[in-house]
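re the bet — no i am not wrong, look at it urself. input seq straight from the record:
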Amino acid sequence: MADPSIPVRTCVGCRRRAPVTELLRVVVRGGGLTPDPRRRLPGRGASLHPTAECLQAAARRRAFPRALRSSATLETGVLEELVSGRPS
C-alpha cells in the first residue's frame, strides 16, 4: 500500500500516476526544459518518469507546452541527455 504522506503526480509522457519520488520535475528556464530533481526551482512544473520512452511520448504529444502553459517551443536537449545517461 502506498504511503499517504507522499504526493502523487501524473507523468506527462505515459499519463500514469506515480509518487513524486519516482518522477522527475521539469520546469521552463531560458526557453528550455530544465530538470529539477530536488523539486525546488520556482515556477510551474511538470512531472515525468525519467525514461526515454516517457520523454518521447511527451514530446510527441506536445505535452510539455500544455502542462507548463508555455506558448513557445521548448528545447528538450538537456532532458534527453539526462534520461539517456550521456554526459552534458
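see?? Residues 52-60 form the longest helix (9 residues). told u. also The chain has one domain: 8-84. so pay up
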